[in-house]
């Protein structure tokens, strides 16, 4: 069925571009108008990356080994958390822990190559090598064999998968808007219009704050996910790349640190202060060195706590209580010292009734996102192998 597809190595289809980092000691190289990518910026599970935490100047670009990728180019992480793939939504530079990837025009186009990389990423991970960290090298791409359809068929395949990613992206954008509205309402009701006479209460009077296990259970090839702070992303949990542990270890950890619906996870080490409200009723992971706000014990405080942590009040608290030089952290004791200025019960209930509408919509959207992601991930290997074919016209050309 795929007899007309060409057998090639992955490296024959793409050009690789190396990245770099301007000297951090030269202030003139930083905080310019050129976005500068690291894996933390695009490890989101989404197709496109539009924003970066750091930026560089034209001087930084010219006086370092970093390169400028174009809109529509691809980025793949090559060290540590290997195999994370995204497509650039605008021009960006990038660090040396990643490769820029660009399709060779006579063989493919970037949109198809994005899905090709997503399809072979597990093979890339299997043959990556390193000491403490796995590493994808240029030679790694030579070792991956692929079957490449004609350009018109590539275009048709990528179009099917892109339509699903576009729907997923729209739902994520809607969720971002809904959460921003909720944050604005919290600020108006409980920051700008807060009454100094409202009762102050320590957070531990309302619910427990725990952390995950400090042990390091043995890794398993098949098992339950064990999440650490690095698996808390900006708006989701990176369960796919989590360490797997046995059911026995999973049960032992959850006797002390079980995550329930309406609990809040808080990254305590490394990138401090990433926050995730668990709304799902199907929770199949355990946690290690993650702050656990047991708001499920007192659900009426779940939204308030989540939005407080994301507000200027919470962010100021986090900034004031962070410690460490080599690796920053915030202690469990610090989290337990949080004090809320509690609004009157009636006002709090009115707020929850309003906010519940937004979070229920977010929950519904997340369910749709999971359904679309499952469909996309099921179709991906079938389309890329030729098991499932799509109709296309021989004259079709990739979109510009």
Automatic annotation (TrEMBL):
InterPro entries in alphabetical order: Restrct_endonuc_typeI_TRD (IPR000055), Restrct_endonuc_typeI_TRD_sf (IPR044946), Type-I_RS_S_subunit (IPR052021)
Family: Belongs to the type-I restriction system S methylase family.
Name of protein: Type I restriction modification DNA specificity domain-containing protein
Domain Type I restriction modification DNA specificity: 4-179, 196-373
Alphabetized UniProt keyword annotations: DNA-binding, Restriction system
UniProt keyword DNA-binding, yes or no: yes
GO MF terms, alphabetically ordered: DNA binding
GO biological process: DNA restriction-modification system
